[in-house]
């Protein structure tokens, strides 16, 4: 799986006009391109995705799994949890997976030690028939907004990508 993920990412790079020599990793494992563009990479089971942008960007693919119910309290804060409708279990799992993906995507943009998914990132309420929401990162005395895009891939996989919304950085 790891080899397939590696090769599929190189294939996607080639489709975007880049070779392996255009990609390098920093000390935290975050990928960068040698030109001025921003890149983010994800792979999950038989899916791989890259996103290339002029703006800071993060991407994540997650499989929708029941286990997320058990770990929800570790990455979703009480306010987010209280606003989630839990009556339809399938939808609840899908929404939690969007939240997880959004927080991973934001983490990939910021790449800063100490960010807690639960304590520092809050995803605004959304419905599954929508494709966008927003999220706030409150970390190190600064508040920053992100635009979150989400969709379902095939069945049981969720794709999420995030862009920094630079108009909204507020220092406290
Ligand atoms: C590094 C991390 C973001 C990878 O995410 P993942 O869902 O495990 O795996 P994905 O397939 O989506 O992403 C893997 C890609 O992330 C990229 N990546 C790795 N470290 C990264 C970093 N520090 N910043 C940005 N991107 C990173 C790499 O490109 C990697 O793919 P590649 O090695 O093939 O190039 C993740 O493991 C992580 O550390 N998350 C934060 C942990 C955390 O705080 N969890 C909270 C628990 S409540």
From TrEMBL:
The keyword Iron appears for this protein: no
GO molecular function: transferase activity
InterPro entries: 4-PPantetheinyl_Trfase_dom, 4-PPantetheinyl_Trfase_dom_sf
Alphabetically ordered keywords of this record: Transferase
Domain 4'-phosphopantetheinyl transferase: 56-157
Protein name: 4'-phosphopantetheinyl transferase
């Amino acid at each position: 799986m790891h080899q397939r993920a590696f090769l599929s990412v190189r294939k996607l790079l080639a489709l975007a006009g880049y070779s392996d020599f255009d990609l390098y990793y920093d000390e935290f494992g975050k990928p960068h391109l040698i030109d001025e563009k921003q890149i983010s990479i994800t792979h999950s089971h038989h899916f791989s995705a890259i996103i290339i942008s002029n703006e800071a960007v993060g991407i994540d693919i997650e499989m929708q799994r029941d286990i997320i119910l058990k770990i929800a309290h570790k990455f979703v804060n009480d306010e987010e949890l209280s606003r989630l409708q839990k009556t339809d279990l399938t939808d609840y799992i899908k929404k939690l997976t969007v939240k997880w993906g959004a927080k991973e995507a934001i983490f990939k943009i910021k790449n800063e030690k100490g960010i807690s998914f639960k304590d520092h990132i809050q995803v605004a309420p959304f419905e599954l028939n929508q494709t966008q929401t927003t999220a706030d990162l409150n970390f190190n005395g600064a508040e920053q907004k992100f635009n979150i895009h989400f969709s379902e891939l095939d069945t049981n996989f969720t794709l999420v990508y995030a862009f920094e919304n630079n108009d909204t950085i507020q220092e406290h």
